Amino acid sequence: MKTRVLIVDDSSVVRTLLSRILASDPDIEVVGTAPDPYVARDKLVALKPDVMTLDIEMPRMDGLTFLEKVMKHFPTRTVIISSLSTAQSATALRALELGAIDVLEKPALDVTKALNTMADDIRAKVKTAACARLRQPLLHSPVATPAVTNRSLIRTTHQILAIASSTGGTEALKVVLSRLPEDIPGTVIVQHMPPVFTRTYADHLQQLCRFEVKEAEDGDRILPGRALLAPGNFHMEVTRNGAYYHVKLHQEPILHGVRPAADYLMNSVAKYAGANAIGLILTGMGRDGAAGLLNMKKAGSFNIAQDESTCVVFGMPKAAIEAGAIDAVLPLERIHDKILDRMKERAAS
Fold it and tell me: Fewest C-beta in 10 Å: which of 140, 180, 185, 286?
């Protein structure tokens, strides 16, 4: 059965381009287009598409306001395709909180050439969204709950928590990280997202967490009480110099269709941290992270995967489980407890 798509964008050029790009896939049918949310509202009800692509900046009603109304009254799997400047990336993050499945950056210059270059990615995101689990919209950002002192960890420079996530991961990471104490082990994260997005997202996480969260810079030290997020379009690896871990950023070829790729990170954690590491793989499409987590497990790490019932897309966790790389499969709300338990056991030993 074909994935039925409604395209919502005020630009007739973009509507035509997206229609052609999506219709070129035999598994996708463009059932309609709309120049603004008011037209889109009527077409959503009449056509009942599987997926809606949505611009943010539109006349009469902005895409964010429209998305909030849609998710409340007529929930629809939505992929945001919009210009994402640094200022606008916070708006795109809000769209994910409200229930959008994924976000794609629509270049401001030479949009025809750029969208044609992105054609494979656009088709893949739409098809993934069609299979994704609809989430209840998050109407307000979560606030970190008070730390439980008897669950705090022994500070150590030798433990590492390595996390991989993709589609749906921006919200899943909030749930996990906001529940961890201020003295977490050095944490390194690969979340697949556009380049302009990662700094804003790191700043957003910082507001929710008790520890430092920052977009990684080449050479940053991995320290207790610090989480480093791989910047968009850069792979991130762990290195060791004496008693200290650092991150190394580079632009080696795209892996699994993405950069950053979690396999680069996980393979380096296996090499330098071994049994002092915990691996975590959250919701996301594809199989990025599975091979690296298997290498981590062979090196002695303890690895956790988010379970299918709480994933937006079960692809990445499923691939890691099938590879034999996972020690525990847990619903999202229980992952932080397992991390704390394992870290305390390792610190005590």
Answer: 140
